[in-house]
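pinned: reference chain
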Amino acid sequence: MEPLRFTKMHGLGNDYLFIDTRMMAEQPDSVWSHYAVVMSDRHFGVGSDGIILIAPSQSAPVRMRIFNADGSESEMCGNGLRALAKWLYDRGQLEPGQAIETGAGLLYPEVIAAEGGLARVIRVNMGTPRLSRSEIGMIGTASATCIEEPLEVDGSMVTVTCVSMGNPHVMVFGPLWDPRVMEEMGTKIEHHPMFPRRTNVHSVEIVDFHRLRIRHWERGAGLTMACGTGVAASTVAAVLTGRVSRNVEVTVPGGILEASWDDKSGNVFLTGPAQEVCEGTFTLR
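pinned: its structure tokens
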């Protein structure tokens, strides 16, 4: 393959390498999986939480495909979606009301603040949360939910609430885990037998009725500075368990997002920044 042009972007430190494949010859997924591993390496590659392909779509102007740093493919990424919306907007390719196809369906980003023709703040309709075990990808009765249930992890019991935002999330409420505990518990829960396709894991601390603090362990990426779908899922879980209002400010290691769960449409909305870091080319050697 010829050298790949990429754009490095991030949403609150959750960084991805964006590759426009719309005019490229189609490649097997194994190729993109390999590139994700090599390019994402922070010592021997470019460095990122993964790569995002700006791909052709049959149902929208573009399709977003996410390959994590370990080469696995994810269904959805909220920070990646905001960054993609900025990439398109800054290049005159995002029309008002335009959909982007994702593994979680068609989603609709909206640029709500711009400066000098560049998007600064993006609001994303993340869609409706899924609460059944079959939708989350959990073992157990397909139609059952998992709200404040015990999960055995290496002989200890952890209380978890599970939500899918097109990809699976496990929330643990309580004092915020430090990075060492987050890494230890994150990898154990990600690979827990209860989740055959693995899962994302979040430590969620309630600051007050309108504010959350969250640390993230992303499936296939590990500790990350932010996780948009994780913020959405954590907000839903906190509302379901009566801990917060439907409109909250969420602090993550990379910054602050605004999250709201609309009680009429059932959709979750995230509002926050996205930033372009650099452009370049990458040759696999």
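why pinned: Residues 187 and 232 are 21 Å apart (CA to CA). The chain has two domains: 4-127+273-282, 133-266.
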